[in-house]
UniProtKB/TrEMBL annotation:
Molecular function terms from GO: lyase activity
dTDP-4-dehydro-6-deoxy-alpha-D-glucopyranose 2,3-dehydratase domain: residues covered: 6-211, 232-437
Pfam families listed in its UniProt record: Hexose_dehydrat (PF03559)
Organism for this UniProt entry: Streptomyces mobaraensis
Name by which UniProt lists this protein: NDP-hexose 2,3-dehydratase
UniProt superkingdom: Bacteria
Cited InterPro entries: EvaA-like, EvaA-like_sf
């Protein structure tokens, strides 16, 4: 580890020690400021803001399970996820923040310069103002490098989008006050930190995906001649968005058949998928020092992976057109594999996700050079409790055919980076993999 990274970890542990955090599990009926609607059972905040937990009825043609009902988080407002970039001696650095979230497995993780819901930054909670917010919400304060509305977990959110924005300071000598919980990090440093389990949070990774390929130690993976053109990839995705649309409708939470709704939690009758639990939070470093909220708690750790194959000397990744319950536009470009293996344990082998066994076999005993990266990353700790996925990129050879059927296509990382700039085309799991492909050496 370099001296700079050793200094980073010393700083990060100092920030962890500087604040007191406490997250306590409580029954849903004991959440301060939250209550179940007497008619629907939906969990709602008394302000009518932040988010709610509702029921959803879903039909997705072609899935292993085509029809189901489930709870879902509805958060219709757009938040801001922003990273400020500044050059130091000609080297671009990102201003990141050591931030506590109630659902983080380790409390403190590395977040963007700004990570705030609209309810937070408009101060519905009557707390402190969000630092650096005006750098991203005021036109002309900096030079935009990327700005797009991006989706989040379609399996758990209903059509949620956040603004992902990267802004460079106009002048390299412009002074930006650095608060105690913030630190400038170079692209190389970020690449090494992305390879550390549960350190760089989901919001940072999705914003970093907009810089992948333009900088960073692994940018060379983004260059080469593609197997499919961009119009062909867009044609393929649009076909899946229109040919087999997901049919969904919001229903009362108490009508989610197959789920138990109790005073303590909402859970699946067979102990699968996830639960909705309640927590009381104390966090001295946040805009509000104490609050209560529901969290979605997954039942198991997921596996998210790209298969990587050279085609004509150019590295390509295998992506799929993936439809999920809450996806805003029916389907988005997703990873080769994206699942929680435990959720498929009750299904026959032919209904397991394609290529899952290939990924797991490579991860358990990889030949040298076959696994490009293998890291456990946390998902959004503001809404999910200890949600973690194992992210991998696995090299395969010519024994994996180019023709993977209508649901899959080979694409270069450069093509994914180009599509990503417009928002709403890559799902959040694919964006994490794209960031890792671009930054992890």
């Amino acid at each position: 580890m370099s001296t700079d990274l050793a200094e980073f970890h010393r700083w990060f542990e100092e920030r962890r020690a500087a604040h007191a955090y406490r997250v306590t599990r409580v029954p849903l009926t004991k959440l301060d400021g939250w209550s179940a609607d007497p008619e629907t059972g939906d969990l709602l905040h008394r302000s009518g803001r932040f988010f709610g937990v509702h029921g959803l009825d879903v039909r997705v043609p072609g899935r292993a399970v085509e029809e189901w009902r489930q709870p879902v988080i509805s958060q219709p407002e757009h938040g801001v996820l922003g990273i400020l970039v500044r050059d130091f001696d000609g080297v671009p650095h990102c201003l990141l923040q050591a931030k506590m979230e109630p659902g983080n497995v380790n409390a403190l993780q590395l977040s963007p310069t700004v990570q705030a819901t609209r309810s937070n930054y408009t101060r519905v909670h009557r707390g402190r103002a969000v630092p650096y917010l005006d750098l991203f919400t005021t036109l002309g304060r900096g030079r935009p490098l990327a700005d797009a509305l991006q989706s989040e977990q379609g399996a758990w959110f209903l059509a949620k989008r956040n603004r992902n924005i990267v802004v460079r300071t106009v002048r390299s000598d412009e002074e930006v006050p650095v608060l105690d919980d913030f630190r400038w990090l170079s692209m190389d440093e970020i690449g090494w930190l992305l390879a550390v389990d549960d350190l760089v949070n989901m919001d940072t990774r999705t914003v970093l995906s907009h810089l992948a390929g333009s900088a960073g130690p692994a940018a060379a993976r983004f260059h080469g001649r593609p197997f499919h053109s961009l119009p062909e990839l867009l044609n393929w995705l649009t076909h899946h968005r229109t040919a087999e649309p997901t049919v969904r409708r919001r229903i009362p939470l108490r009508e989610t058949t197959g789920w138990r709704v109790t005073d303590d939690e909402v859970s699946h009758e067979e102990g699968r998928y996830f639960r909705i639990i309640g927590v009381d939070v104390r966090a001295g470093s946040r805009e509000v020092a104490a609050w209560s909220q529901p969290l979605l708690a997954p039942r198991g750790q997921g596996v998210v992976a790209f298969l990587v194959r050279d085609i004509g000397g150019t590295p390509h990744v295998l992506v799929q057109a993936r439809a999920e319950a809450g996806t805003r536009d029916t389907a988005e470009i997703g990873p080769t594999v994206q699942c929680v293996p435990a959720n498929y344990a009750h299904l026959p082998g032919d209904r397991r996700p394609r290529h899952l066994d290939t990924v797991l076999a490579a991860a358990s005993a990889p030949p040298p050079g076959r696994v490009l990266f293998d890291v456990v990353q946390s998902e959004e700790g503001g809404r999910f409790h200890h949600a973690r996925n194992r992210y991998l990129a696995v090299r395969v050879g010519d024994d994996v055919p180019l023709d993977q059927g209508d649901a899959f296509r080979w694409a270069t990382c450069g093509q994914l980076a180009a599509l990503n700039q417009y928002g709403g085309l890559l799902n959040v799991e694919a964006r994490t993999l794209l960031a890792c492909m671009g930054f992890i050496p």
